[in-house]
Queue: 3 jobs
Job 1
Amino acid sequence: MPLQIVRRLLPEWGTTYGPPGGGPFPAIMVLHGSEGAWSGWSHRNAAILAAHGFLAFPFGYSSGGNAWNAGHIVDCPLDRTAQALAALRDFPFVGPRVGLYGVSRGAEHALLLTSLMARDEMPGIPEAVAAHSPPDVVCGGFDARSFRDSGDPGWQSWDVGKRAWTWKGGSEGLLPTTPIEVERYAGPLFLSHGVQDRLWSVEMTKRLEQRLGRHGRQPEVHYYEGEDHLPGSEGENRHHELLIDFFQRHL
């Protein structure tokens, strides 16, 4: 039986998942959350997208870690992600339209990168962007070695004393609590959030939606009743139906 999902190496950057054949295919870069590049969740999400006709590239941007430790998101260079996005566009199997999809810290990453590329008028900005469980502001650094479960003494979702992101060598405009200026992006934008999210409040996505509306933007927004930070089986199925439909329409 021929494979329905094929792995292809994007030289110097990592593996991709896509349909068999020569393409070209609409492509999506997938950005993981604080679970890190080693956890496999972004590869699993990429395989789901590949099963629906996209060439998906799970980009591992976290530093350090291994199969048992997530590593950290500290001083992560967003311009390196822009370089990886450019490499994906140049991949022979990729068509003219490329999307960006991130979950949690990956959603923050996706919105930040897009807003900075738009601000600086950089070529190669994604043709469509999706963010699940995003924040509306820049968050602090994350190190899995010091992470505690919610409710434990010393719990915090991120470290206020560390910077998560850099852009062109500095983090001055990316300090924690700085609003993410995604309203700079004029392309199709998909936002989603579980209403019962106990890690990152759904109010963050609501504030994003309101701010985008004030700037004349009309994002596609979905709130999942009864769902936590990561949706359960039924919620995830619904999320993927909506997400895939969004990318099929815009890529």
Job 2
Amino acid sequence: MRKIFILCAAWCAGLALMLAACNKTGSLTYLGNGIPGSVTASSTKIVLDISKMTTTDTSVLFTIKNANFGYDAAIANELQFDSVGDNWAKPQSVTLNAGATTLSYTTYNLNALALKLGLHTNAAGQVLVRLKSTLSTITVFSDAVTLTVTPFSAASSVFVPGAYQGWNPASADSLVSETSNGIYTGVINFTGSDLGFKITTAKNWTAAYGQGSTAGTVSLSGGNLTAPGNGGYLLTLNTDLLTLTFTPQWSVIGDAAGGWSADSQMYLDKTNNTWYVTTKLKSDGTNTIKFRFKNDWGTNLGAGAGAGTLSSGGSNIIIPATAAGGDNYKITINPTGLTYTLLKI
């Protein structure tokens, strides 16, 4: 019995020593809450130079010091970037390679990051940078470093030649990426019975996006793309994901314009930012029309307080009596100025 007691006492003492060892630093294992690391920047006031847009310069070099979790282990590190006031709600994150202690940003990459965070071009704005370190289920964050960055405009374009304009890249309308982040948008007016088109990276046929392997995708080796129909559509091209979407814009609908179940898409006049369409209207003096956005009643315009005016969600616009087979009208709206015209032609 005495022997058993001695063995138990020894086992308990050993366990106590092991537990104590787990809280020691040095060569013994320690897994606490972790001590955050740190990040420093080679410069905290950066005016970006557009002449270095295409070079491999280093506009800023970040140096990190690893967090301390009490023992040597593979820590997952990220640099997080956010704008002042966002409170890290939607940070942009960059994962560092294992063992890396530095991360450099070129002028191009830092400019794109600053614009993505909402900084204005040619004006100094602030970007916060911190180190996020994770080991197992424990994550710690360093104190943030504040950079004052002045970005420049980095807009780039792709071009949309097609049947609607004679398949000429040199004179084709364009889609624009304000920050050169691979996402290009623009309204294209498609007309005629042939709705085919492609998207070129320059005003020539050197490289052109066509139809991808599945609906909604594009490929540099694909055949012609096809617009959903006549009218002005907002195109959104993502060259990273190789996707393309079409979003209808303003349209005319009503029992004077063929019924309440079919929209007649309007075209964008890019000179004065109005929308127009020439279509047949048929009315006995009581038939009506309205205008709606994205073929949806969530945003619609009807009659305003005065002649030729519009109001959000307003009443139907009455069309005067037409010939028995209807009359052709050019209809124009200004969704910003809330005005419209009906011109019989």
Job 3
Amino acid sequence: MSAASVMVLRGVRKTYRLGEHVVPALQGVDLDVQAGELLALTGPSGSGKSTLLNLCGLIDSPDEGQVLLDGRPVDARQALAATLLRRDAIGFVFQSFNLVPVMTVAENVDYPLFLAGVPAAERRRRVDEALVQVGLSAHAAHRPDALSGGQRQRVAMARALVKRPRLVIADEPTASLDSHTAEQVLGLMRRLAHEGGAAFLIATHDERLTRRCDRVIGLLDGRIVRAAAPGDDTSRHLPASTASAQEAHA
């Protein structure tokens, strides 16, 4: 484990039961997520991306293996401890934004701080700072339905980052955005990661996003089959059976 690792998974396995069948979602995954990097997680539907996000977000726990946050083992089955860690150390950004429609932009960004019991003056300062970071200070009093899709996603990013998390988990954050808006959001994520030091773990099918990430991790049938910088062709290093499986799922 690197000294700069924010989230580490070692030997992680996870299965789900569907009726009489046991479905392996993750099969012995090892992963390090580094501070200040954008790490893209790719793979076909059913490859294990959502399960991996849930484990890293402390929403679920593995059947086997270990999850470490800042070098310390964590267990999502310890509900209170996991909730506190999610509140303080992990931010979430979703494809559907998940903003509260009756709240203003500033109120949406403020909400996680309010839940955490941060004093009002400190909340106002941090909300203002977060909105400056994402370029939405002029829209603080607007409600989400008055914003474009790209602006809503930037509000969601401000809400995730206002807690100053160590890890931001993003699930298809550009899927509903046009190319120009997606490029703006991607540039913002890169700047926030590289300047602010937060790690971004991003599940995506969007090649525009993977090209701009620092590393790309490919999942297939619950296993990591590719780990490289964008543009690297590492499939030649995989066993023939794995490479054939990749092609079949492409």
